[in-house]
Amino acid sequence: MNLKAKHFKIAGVLLGATMLATVFSGCGGQKSASDANTIKIGANFELTGNAANYGTSALKGLRLAVKEVNDAGGINGKKIKLEEVDCKSEASESANATTKLITDHVSAVVGPATTGDVLAASPIVAGSKIPLIAPAATSPKVTVGADGKVKPYIFRSCFIDPQQGEVMAKFAIDTLHAKTAVIYVDSSTDYSKSLGKVFKEKFEAAGGKVIDQEAFIQKDQDFQTTLTKIKAVNPDIIFIPAYYEEVGKIVKQAREMGIKCPLLGTDGWDDNKVIAIAGKQALNNTYFSTHYSNKDKDVQGFIKMFKKENNGEAPNVFAALGYDAGKMLIAAIKDAKSSDPQKIRDALEHLKNVKVGTGIISMNKDHNPIKPAVIIEMKDGNKLLKEKIAPKD
Amino acid sequence: MSIMDQFFQQLINGISLGSIYALIALGYTMVYGIMKLINFAHGDIYMVGAYIGFFCITIMHWSVLPALLVSMVLTGILGVLIERLAYRPLRSAPRLSVLITAIGVSFFLEYTMMYFVTPQPRTFPKVLSDAAYHIGPFVVNNQQIMIFAITIILMALLTYIVQYTKVGKAMRAVSFDTETAQLMGINANRIISFTFGIGSALAAAAGVLVGIYYNSIDPLMGIMPGLKAFVAAVLGGIGILPGAAAGGIILGIVEALVSGFISSTFRDAAAFAILILVLLFKPSGLLGKNTNEKV
After folding, report:
1. DSSP H stretches of helix in chain A
2. Cα–Cα distances in angstroms (integers) from residue B237 to residues B19, B25, B158, in the given order
3. Percent of chain A having pLDDT more than 70?
4. Do A256 and B139 touch (CB under 8 A)?
5. Does the pLDDT of residue A31 top 70, yes or no?
6. Rounded distance, CA A300 to CA A294, Å?
7. CA of A259: which chain B residue's CA is closest?
8. Which of A126, A191, B179, B229 is deepest in the core (most CB within 10 A)?
9. Which pTM value belongs to this model?
10. Do A273 and B126 touch (CB under 8 A)?
11. Exposed e or buried b for every residue in A352-385, given b needs 16+ CB within 10 A?
């Protein structure tokens, strides 16, 4: 009994001492690390779970941007150190991972990749006044809250969904000379519905006419009934803003039914599964907007570097966007001449003409980069760069 | 295209969709007929069939017919096993317990498959030409014709087995009155196993056809068609074979017309509205007779 109590006491003292030591070393270590010769940046990505493809690619892009600046001697002699955490493609884990980064005293956070995970992380970084750059979340509500006010600490390195609707409407009218269109949306996603809405507004404002609107839901297999209806109204083009799985089936079935007009889409099409499902022939005469094309001469340098760093693996869209986010953050830290989160935030807000992987960008008032969208034409299973369309503002 | 042309084109679409429902519904209705079990795992057996067909075609590089046959045989064996392991021990349990077990088997199949083949959809390679025939303003493609033809062949085969063979006679006897059939020397367990096997093989055929036709399969693909086939079976009169076939085709046509002339988002709603209407106004189904329970 007595012995036991003594044991407890010793254990307690030891435990207390260890904890004190960690607290001190934690504080001291962080201060000296951050101030002396490194700047800590948090990388919160979907490394496991169902968005793991997106998250890991974006992280590889970000790592490349960091390696580049470190190899060149860092920023004012300070090296950037990435603190990598996994948000497991879940909103609640994303919040936990962000909290962990903040207790590690990072100066800024990059990621996660998908809209839902970013939305879960945003209130936490905002509460601690740490800036966050979302590389690939395209929903407008990532940077602008429900009250219409810009969220002060959230930025992104990709364009937003409405821009794609606008770009494709412009492309349909100017390049394809379309006068009539049918919009075929996936009514189970906000992504698809909002793109359909923007496309209709812009297409009709430019003098086109939307003659029919149809909808399907995710997991549908059979589109022939609706396509029969669309074929009967004989539009100049069909706009299908949706994800690759359904898109593949729609394209296949449309061509089998003898619908020959151009089919238009958005970045949801940008996956090789579309080719596997629809077949190369069926995809001829289809066009979609996306963030980046590997045929673009402006991105060849980035592709070469990325391949060198990743054993010859070619970068995808997400890797390019992760790289862009890293470049933006580095530019902001250089402008701020400091690792203070508040100063980095201010610098991010005023970024102008920054050279990133996919071009040269500036930040607009809604914290979205002003950057062109590329339009890809599918030809015999190859993705050709058709056009690059810059937004108006 | 005039409204009339559109109508006929939608009929063609509806019949090809409906023949798939019919194939699945046949298995549903047979199992119900013989052991009064609504086998909610039937849609997932169809999914397993699709995957077996997929692996025969992609890994073994077989053509469609051998893949279809092997998938039917293996899935048939799986059906027999499921019956043996999950349902037979509950033969004398209340009907609700068996129904709940069926739901359990359904989830078991879905998530076991997901573990082995990942939840990502697979794409079938092009094994059949998708040449389309333009007859006047209408389009029919090779695959639609094939689905319809295979459905008809399998239905004819099934009718032959049930009506003209000894096993078929035993099946009818067991479904009519299991106990008396047993007294007459019929091994009811063996007949029930056989029925399960045939029903599962038909579902597998539907799975492979759908995989080839729509070009993509995933572990949860069986849920919706399974429910639709249930509606088709109830519509035609559950337990009645020609009823299931007719119910499937009618359901396919109704869905095609609804999505062609109203909106495709109402398609599933229409299918389940049919279920409710049938249950309200003619619970025995289109081909069913009202029977009075004997006391």
Report:
1. 2-36, 52-71, 91-103, 115-128, 161-174, 190-205, 224-233, 244-256, 273-278, 300-309, 317-336, 341-349
2. 17, 11, 17
3. 90
4. yes
5. no
6. 7
7. B139
8. B229
9. 0.79
10. no
11. eebebbbbebebeeebbbbbbbbbbbbeeeebeb
CA proximity to A167, closest of A76, A256, A290, A313 = A290
CA atoms within a 13 Å half-sphere pointing along the CA-CB vector of A291 = 28
SS3 at position A264: strand
What distance in Å separates residue A241's CA from the closest CA in chain B? 17
Q: Which region holds residue B94: left if phi is over 0, alpha if psi is between -120 and 50, else beta?
A: beta
pLDDT tier at A296 (50, 70, 90 boundaries)?
confident
In 3D, which of A373, A352, A177 has the Cα closest to residue A269?
A373
Structure tokens at A125: 């970084």
Q: By three-state DSSP, how is residue B35 classified?
A: helix
Q: How many CB atoms lie within 10 A of CB A129?
A: 12
Tokens of A157: 């390195």
- Dump pLDDT digits (tens) for A244-262: 888 999 999 999 888 999 9
Question: Is the pLDDT at A29 greater than 50, yes or no?
Answer: no
What pLDDT score was predicted for residue A222? 87
Interface test with B, best of A214, A222, A260, A273 (most B CBs within 10 A): A222
Contact A239, A264 (CB under 8 A): yes
Q: Which residue has the higher pLDDT, A214 or B124?
A: A214
- Percentage of the residues of chain A whose pLDDT score is greater than 90: 60
Task: Give the pLDDT of residue A53.
Answer: 81
DSSP string of A279-329, one letter each residue: -TTTTTTEEEEES--TT-GGGHHHHHHHHHHTTTPPP-HHHHHHHHHHHHH
Residue type, A299: V
Amino acid at B155: M
Per the structure block, which two tokens stand in for B227?
A: 């429910």
Beta carbons of B10 and B248 less than 8 angstroms apart? no
Euclidean distance between CA atoms A301 and A183, whole angstroms: 37
> Are residues B123 and A277, on separate chains, in Cβ contact within 8 Å?
yes
Helix (H, G, I), strand (E, B) or coil at A32: helix
Contacts of A232 in chain B (CB under 8 A): 1, 5-6
What confidence score (pLDDT) does residue B143 get?
84
pLDDT tens digit string along A129-165?
Answer: 999 999 999 888 899 988 889 999 999 999 888 889 9
Q: Taking CB atoms and an 8 Å limit, are B121 and A214 in contact across chains?
A: no
How far apart are the C-alpha atoms of A144 and A139, rounded to whole Å? 9
CB < 8 Å to B214, chain A: 221-222, 249
Q: State the pLDDT at residue A33.
A: 42
Cβ burial of A238 (10 Å; 0-12, 13-18, 19+) is buried
B6 reaches A (C-beta below 8 A): yes
CA gap A131, A333 in Å, rounded: 11
User: Least CA distance to B254: which residue of chain A?
Assistant: A225
Q: From CA A341, how far away is CA A331, in angstroms rounded?
A: 14
Task: Name which of B156, B246, B158, B245 is nearest B201 in CA terms.
Answer: B158
Instruction: Indicate yes or no: CB of A222 within 8 angstroms of CB of B17.
Output: yes
Residue of A nearest to B118 (CA): A50
pLDDT of residue A35: 54
